[in-house]
């Protein structure tokens, strides 16, 4: 401890202040792992001293089971059969703390004297000449480990305190600039513990827990993080399964109660066993009963309900198909790099609850003049039509989205083959029509000349490997989720003639066709990971391409809906 020292630094707009070395002569370091353990080891001696006195309150007289104290770090609660015993226990504590150089925080202490089930008023207890512990009145209460209590726990008051603190933290998180994953992680790790700390101690009804979940979703909706008609189940499913990773409060409550019950029932301590026998629905744990809480929903049930919905269930249904790489399709959720509002907008598109004319007419049953697309006026204005089938958007927005994905692959191939240097960022990169060096030749959106004219001779990317005398034909497509298989087959069929003619015209050993497909909602076609490897590219490139697609899709929908 003689080596402990620190400096204090203060920075302002105009000045920089730094103190000299300050030696730390007493106290406990905040934040390191050894000091709290060291402190607890020292305080254990006090616990041993109290246990040797044989004082305490009898919990179960037939077995002579008593409790003398509870201690958590530096918070101590003493139990005694009468005032004389309590005075003796307090003198032991006061003497111990004085000996080790600590002080009793008298302003945070209180004595509760209970007789025949009622708190009795009176004067405080004089422990030593300069130490008197005040007595708690019948209307008073004290805080122990964050819970207001007296003869019993002030349940209604504590629930309001927990609610206010929880929602205060949720609002602060939603007002921050965190990305989507960090937002939900913060809610789970910083806001929810304000509530979960009380689980198992304070009894919450199912209706109260549901109300907390509803108000949480309302706050998410108010900040644009969750669409009011999007799947609420999906909010509480892990991101690895396609959800958004928020803890369900009712589910967390039941899990906590079950875990605490198992802890008490597994212990062989005579005191804990006596508590289990005495708890006949006195606490939320109801330890005397062999039956745990009923009605807790599981993640498997949430997933089943999500899949069963007519609209909400289409995206997860497509996600589970054999032609989809589920793990890669959910990269944007696992990474969580989107803004919460952007992710909420994308989820609304995937859940098909965006207010298109078709949705307004057929789902909300509102009377509108027409459900035809406001841009092309040819087909019903469904979300599938908006993101992939509108003839007016095809030459502009869809082409821009397609090219954004194609540029990612072209840039990576050009860098891998040494045709360009690693200089420009992906969004700054503009492909050249032809790139060539001694080993490779790379075409971008160019008509490929062959001896025999063929109709489909302009794929997105063609790479010639001069050394291997081979060619790879790549064509990028961003179809609707339901059309992924069809798009894959069409691309293979479309360029069969070109592959054959290239092989003959340039005397190549091999020509392969590689359809590169990511759907409008970010679903990754099953072969894309394999094809990325065949091109000698890193698998992480798929995530970069997926990001371009889903950002473009959300932009298309937002722009479309703001058009009158």
Task: Describe it.
The radius of gyration is 34 Å and the shape is elongated. The chain has 21 helices and 19 strands. The strands form eight sheets. It has a five-stranded mixed sheet, sandwiched between helices. Strands 1-4 form a two-stranded antiparallel sheet. α3 runs antiparallel to α4, α14 (340-350) packs across α21 (540-561) and α17 packs antiparallel against α21. The mean pLDDT is 91. The termini are far apart. β2 (9-11) and β3 form a beta hairpin. By secondary structure, it is of the alpha+beta class.
Oligomer: single chain
Uncertain segments are none
State the major sheet: 5 strands, mixed
Mean pLDDT over all positions: 91
- Spatial order of the strands in the main sheet? 15-16-17-18-19
What class would the helix/strand composition place it in?
alpha+beta
* Shape, principal axes of CA atoms: elongated
Please report which band the strand proportion falls in: under 5%, 5-15%, 15-25%, 25-35%, 35-45% or over 45%: 5-15%
Helix content: 40-55%
Helices, by number, come to 21
Please tally the β strands and state the result: 19
From the alpha-carbon coordinates, what is the Rg to the nearest angstrom? 34 Å
Distance between the termini: 71 Å
């Amino acid at each position: 401890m003689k080596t402990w020292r620190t400096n204090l630094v203060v920075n302002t707009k105009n000045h920089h202040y730094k103190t000299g070395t300050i030696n730390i002569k007493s106290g406990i370091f905040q934040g390191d792992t050894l000091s709290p353990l060291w402190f607890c080891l020292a305080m254990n001696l006090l616990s041993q001293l109290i246990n040797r006195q044989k004082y305490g309150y009898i919990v179960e007289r037939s077995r002579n089971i008593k409790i003398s104290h509870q201690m958590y770090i530096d918070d101590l609660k003493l139990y005694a059969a009468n005032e004389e015993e309590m005075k003796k226990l307090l003198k032991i504590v006061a003497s111990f703390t004085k000996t080790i150089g600590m002080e009793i925080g008298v302003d945070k202490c209180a004595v509760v004297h209970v007789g025949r089930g009622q708190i009795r008023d009176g004067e405080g207890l004089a422990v030593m000449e300069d130490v008197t512990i005040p007595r708690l009145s019948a209307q008073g209460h004290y805080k122990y480990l964050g819970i207001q209590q007296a003869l019993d726990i002030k349940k209604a008051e504590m629930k309001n305190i927990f609610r206010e603190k929880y929602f205060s933290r949720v609002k602060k998180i939603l007002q921050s600039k965190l990305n989507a994953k960090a937002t939900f992680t913060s809610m789970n790790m910083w806001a929810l513990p304000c509530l979960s700390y009380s689980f198992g101690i304070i009894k919450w009804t199912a209706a109260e827990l549901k109300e907390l979940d509803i108000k949480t979703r309302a706050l998410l909706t108010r900040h644009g993080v969750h669409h009011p008609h999007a799947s609420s189940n999906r909010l509480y499913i892990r991101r690895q399964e396609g959800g958004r990773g928020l803890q369900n409060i009712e589910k967390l409550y039941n899990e906590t109660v079950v875990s605490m019950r198992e802890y008490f029932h597994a212990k062989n301590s005579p005191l804990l066993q006596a508590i289990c026998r005495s708890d006949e629905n006195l606490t939320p744990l109801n330890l005397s009963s062999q039956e745990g809480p009923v009605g807790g929903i599981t993640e498997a049930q949430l997933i089943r309900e999500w899949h069963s919905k007519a609209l909400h269930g289409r995206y997860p249904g497509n996600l589970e198909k054999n032609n989809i790489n589920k793990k890669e399709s959910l990269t944007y959720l696992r990474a969580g790099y989107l803004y919460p509002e952007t992710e909420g907008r994308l989820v609304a598109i995937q859940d098909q609850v965006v207010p298109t004319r078709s949705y307004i007419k057929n789902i909300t049953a509102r009377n509108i003049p027409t459900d035809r697309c406001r841009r092309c006026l040819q087909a019903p204005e469904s979300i599938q039509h908006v993101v992939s089938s509108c003839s007016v958007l095809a030459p502009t927005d869809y082409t821009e989205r397609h090219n954004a994905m194609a540029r990612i692959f072209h840039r990576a191939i050009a860098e891998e083959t040494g045709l360009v240097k690693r200089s420009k960022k992906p969004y700054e990169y503009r492909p050249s029509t032809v790139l060539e060096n001694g080993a490779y030749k790379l075409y971008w959106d160019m008509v490929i000349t062959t001896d025999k004219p063929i109709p489909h001779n302009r794929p997105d990317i063609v790479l010639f490997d001069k050394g291997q005398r081979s060619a790879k034909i790549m064509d990028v497509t961003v179809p609707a989720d339901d059309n992924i298989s069809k798009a894959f087959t069409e691309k293979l069929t479309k360029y069969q003639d070109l592959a054959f003619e290239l092989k003959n015209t340039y005397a190549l050993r091999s020509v392969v066709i590689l359809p590169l497909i990511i759907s409008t909602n970010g679903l990754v076609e099953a072969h894309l990971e394999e094809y990325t490897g065949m091109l000698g590219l890193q698998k992480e490139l798929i995530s970069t391409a997926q990001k371009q697609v889903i950002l473009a899709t959300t932009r298309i929908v937002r722009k479309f809906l703001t058009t009158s």
